[in-house]
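Record 1 of the preview.
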Amino acid sequence: MAQIELTWVEKQRFLGVDSAGHSVVLSPPTDVGVKPSETLLIALAACAAHDVVEILHKQRAGLKQLKVVVSGEQAADPPWPYRRIHLLFQATAASSLERIERAIDLSLNKYCSVRASLSPDVVVTFAAELLSDAPAEQ
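->
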């Protein structure tokens, strides 16, 4: 069973510590930490990226770099739930775009526990870009 600890530090600043002892500072956007609602976006991106890296590694897809850019649209009224989340995966790999898209689809629709924990009302979409790792011509 997962267990975390959240400790109030001061003002609206908190320290979250996971079951392995890793920590993150959470706060409003005007302070030093990560906005709590945006940790959900980070968690979704990290969960999906973990799966994608594993899948592509098993396929020997030659993954060299992966970046995930996430945008989330929240409702205008409290409690401001996310309505739509879009993930853009940017990969540098010796693979096809279709293979990368398939890995992302498997992650988001079969393996990612964060996605599975979101309300079915949250629309999650994704796109993928296969970036070239060829040196630029001079």
